[in-house]
Amino acid sequence: MLGYRGAMRLPHLHPDELDAEQRALYDVLTSGPRRQAHSALDPALQLTDAEGRLQGPFNTFLVHPRLGMALQEISRLLRFDGLLGARVREIVILIVAASQRSNFEWAAHEAIARSIGVTDAEIAALAREEPISFVDPAEHAAARLARSLVTSGDVDDELYAQAQAALGDAGLFEVSTVVGIYRLVATQLATFRIAAPPGPWDGPSVTRP
Q1: Which alpha helices (DSSP H) does 81-130 contain, by range?
Q2: What are phi and psi of 142, to 5 degrees?
Q3: Which of 3, 164, 171, 196 has minimal Cβ neighbours within 10 Å of its Cβ?
Q4: CA torsion through residues 153, 99, 191, 81, sign
Q5: What is the rounded (10 degree) CA torsion for 133, 113, 61, 194?
Q6: Distance separating alpha carbons of residues 208 and 128, to the nearest angstrom
Q7: 185 burial type by CB count under 10 A (0-12 exposed, 13-18 middle, 19+ buried)
């Protein structure tokens, strides 16, 4: 097991072991856009393992399938049908993952970020939780907004006005929702000891500022 010592705290259910509510959630997860989005990731980070069992945060959703269904719908909307550009969204997610030291979240979304052009230097700075001056105004505003939310839990008036100008009210709302959902997912991953590759902070090269 990677990322946490000891056994995962949840049963790793095979599709044949699911009850009706769990199966309905499983079918939504595995038949939607996540299947294609996860297919290029490392096998340990893909949506399902070789036996068809859900991996990562998705296995935790089966514990409470009605709530899991609601959570997957919010995360689906944010990832596949939201207003934010893909780079903006992935930058925000990596800021959250680094702030929470969430190894699974980081590993999955670092790979996605690289695939859409987030550079090695940008990813390294995000891992170190360093401020970055992105050229794109929406990326810059979203990164500053997310950083403020994960570090202080608040946004001052000046930053709010800048983010509003760059993102609009709906975009600002979406960034704050991405921050909230991925902090929630990081909490669930930690609570249930979901295995993950080591994060960049697990080595000597990254220290928290």
Answers
A1: 86-100, 103-115, 120-127
A2: -65, -40
A3: 164
A4: positive
A5: -90
A6: 6
A7: buried
pLDDT in tens, 14-37: 999 999 999 999 999 999 787 776
Alpha carbon distances (Å) from 72 to 115, 152, 169, 184, 185? 23, 27, 24, 12, 11
Q: Amino acid letter at 109?
A: H
Distance CA 92, CA 142 (A): 7
Biggest CA-to-CA distance, the chain: 54
Residue in the structure block whose two tokens are 């097991």? 1
Domains of the chain in start order, with CATH, are 15-80 (no CATH), 86-192 (1.20.1290.10)
Residue showing tokens 């969430």: 102
**Both structure tokens of 54:** 């859900």
What are the tens digits of pLDDT across the range 68-119? 999 999 999 999 999 999 999 999 999 999 999 999 999 999 999 999 999 9
Token reading at 45: 């980070």
**Angle (nearest 5°) at CA 41 between 39 and 47:** 55
- Give the DSSP per-residue string, 122-187: HHHHHHTT-----SSHHHHHHHHHHHHHHHHS---HHHHHHHHHHHHHHHHHHHHHHHHHHHHHHH
